[in-house]
Amino acid sequence: MTSPATAPATPDRRLHPWSWLFVLLQQLRQFLLPLVALVVFGSRGDRGDLADLLVPLVAVAVLVAISLLQYLTYRYRIGGDALTVRSGWLQRSVREIPFARIHNVVVHQSPLHRLFGVAEVRLESAGGDKPEAQMRVLRLDDALALEHQVRHRGPEAGEAAGVAPPAAEVLLALSPAEVVRLGLISNRGMVVTAAAFGALYQMFPRRLASDYIQDYSQRAFGYASHLHPGTAVAVVAAVAVALLALAALRVLSVLLALLQYHGFVLSRAERRLTVERGLLTRLRTSVAQRRIQAWTLQEGVMHRLLRRRRLRIDTAVVEAQGESGRALKELAPVATPAACDRLVAGLLPVAHWPPRDWRGVARGQWWRLCLPTLVLLPALVALLCWHYGSWGLLPLLWLPWSAFKARRQVARMGYALDERLIAVRGGWWNRWWRFAELDKLQALQLVRSPLDRLLGTATLWLDTAGASAGSPPLRLQFVAEDDARAIHQRLIEAMARRRLRW
Q1: Are the beta carbons of 443 and 488 closer than 8 angstroms?
Q2: Is 14 part of a structural domain of the chain?
Q3: How many CA atoms does the CB half-sphere of 139 hold within 13 Å?
Q4: Dist. CA 370–CA 178, nearest whole Å
Q5: Can you name the residues that pair with 169 across neighbouring β-strands?
Q6: Does residue 173 lie within any of the structural domains?
Q7: Is the same domain home to 357 and 477?
Q8: Is pLDDT of 402 > 80?
Q9: d(CA 12, CA 79)
Q10: What is the predicted pLDDT for the residue at 107?
Q11: CATH code of 129's domain
């Protein structure tokens, strides 16, 4: 805990009078299934005991009381350089949150928030799986004012001098057509459909779900056999059904993209990046530009077909479980390659992006990417041949594809290093570029496996704060030992001269 701010502070403030209702709804969401189970399955036999109905009512009354107590006991005060939060009834707590510690500010508005004219504010710092403060809820103007005060480090920063804050510079705005392209590129529809199917399969008894699927399949095949289609007609019908299913999933992906990214605007004001997006639920999240730790450009097959890329960033903020998608991770969910390069060049003007000279790795090492296949496939083929005879040799057809893919991947692997930036690229089917400023590097590791020592190569791992789980590693692989040691020494000297900024 830090010492309280000595600068003048505003009086203690309460949350919005309806904040207890939003806390109650959040708690009811967590206990919804147990409460439904009590109501539906609580009564036994034909007695219909009154207690079976009273238990859910008592549980709801307890949640209402807890929500009201949280509202009555929660206070916050904005000091000169810190935010003070007081909460608790039996166990009281006072939390001092320096503005300098806050990395990310999130203003969240669901449709219900918008109906009441309120918003939820989350203040997140580096590390940890919980926000420093979560204010559920404030009036929308109070929420935006708090975001402004955190950004300017105090209630009257920037205003005392009588200077109006500069207007935000719009760096990227996605049109509806671009959001539709994003939906076509992404596979969110397939992911959501699979998740919904898995949830329904878990909610209903397994035997009931299996019987339903089997019964539906038998009816479909019975109807198809009743029509007596020929082989060609059956194949065409199966292909048409598959294409319709894929088209439906793409349409669902487009709808999900419109809900999440409609009105996407990336802006910059006073070296702080802000993103606003969402159709029904509006999300406004901001992060100081200096908090960016690493950058990732990604380009899949659909991206290349539509001539688009994706630009993501890593910050030191760790998202809490269940809060995926609220932290600022995407500067450009979809944009042209030129637009992505302009964004990086504008935000890193001294880094000279994109690099002019990429250095490749030892291309003769491509076979090392095939080693898992070469080790596991013979055992699998032997097992399949034992069960199915010569048909078990079919998996051997994977070997040429595995070798081709490995050669293409190694051909694209490379790195670039200058006085300000280290960049790594890789992938073939799904391509990526990952880079970070030298000032953001926290650790280096030179690794040589037994195979590396035999072949005279090495792997160099670079670590920054807050790396995303879905991002490719910042790693130089299959580099000649002398080159790897020279890069390692150069980076050590650069890190010794520079001050870590995060």
Answers
A1: no
A2: no
A3: 6
A4: 38
A5: 268
A6: no
A7: yes
A8: yes
A9: 10
A10: 92
A11: 2.30.29
Predicted TM-score of the model (pTM): 0.82
CA distance 74 to 70: 6
The secondary structure of residue 99, as a DSSP letter, is G
Beta bridge partners of 87: 93
Amino acid (one-letter) located at 364: G
Asked if 344 and 353 touch (Cβ cutoff 8 Å), the reply is yes
Report the C-alpha gap between 320 and 71 in whole angstroms: 23
Backbone dihedral angles phi then psi of residue 178, each to the nearest 5 degrees? -65, -35
> Cα-flanking dihedrals φ and ψ of residue 227, to 5°?
-80, -15
> Which of 207, 232, 261 lies at the terminal end of a domain, its last residue?
261
Indicate if 52 and 197 belong to the same structural domain: no
Q: How far is CA 254 from the centre of its chain?
A: 18
Q: How many CB atoms lie within 10 A of CB 22?
A: 21
Tokens of 227: 């029509």
Q: Is 436 strand, coil or helix?
A: strand
Three-state DSSP state, 86: strand
Same domain, 322 and 436: yes
Q: Does residue 382 surpass a pLDDT of 70?
A: yes
- For residues 293 and 420, membership in a common domain is answered with yes
> Based on the domain organization, do 276 and 419 belong to the same domain?
yes
Q: Which of 172, 412, 178, 188 is nearest to 306 (CA)?
A: 178
DSSP letters along 315-330, please? -SBPPPTT-TT-S--E
In a domain, 109, yes or no: yes
Lowest mean pLDDT among 4-18, 265-279, 369-383, 387-401: 4-18
The reply to whether 118 and 33 lie within a common domain is yes
Q: How far apart are alpha carbons 124 and 37 in whole angstroms?
A: 36
The number of domains in the chain is: 4
Average pLDDT over residues 63-69: 88
Sign of CA dihedral 404, 406, 409, 414: negative
Last residue of a domain, one of 380, 409, 438: 409
| Mean pLDDT in residue range 249-272 | 92
Are residues 86 and 219 part of one domain? Answer: no
Query: Are 298 and 228 in the same domain?
Result: no
In a domain, 298, yes or no: yes
User: Taking the CB of residue 150, how many other CB atoms lie within 10 A of it?
Assistant: 21
DSSP codes joined into one string, 355-407: PS--EE--GGGGGGGGHHHHHHHHHHHHHHHHHHGGGGGGGGGHHHHHHHHHH
The rounded distance, in Å, linking the Cα atoms of 414 and 424 is 6
Q: What is the mean pLDDT of the chain?
A: 82
Residue span of the structural domain in which 438 resides: 265-361+413-497
Rounded-to-integer distance, Cα 303 and Cα 309, Å: 6
Rounded-to-integer distance, Cα 209 and Cα 207, Å? 5
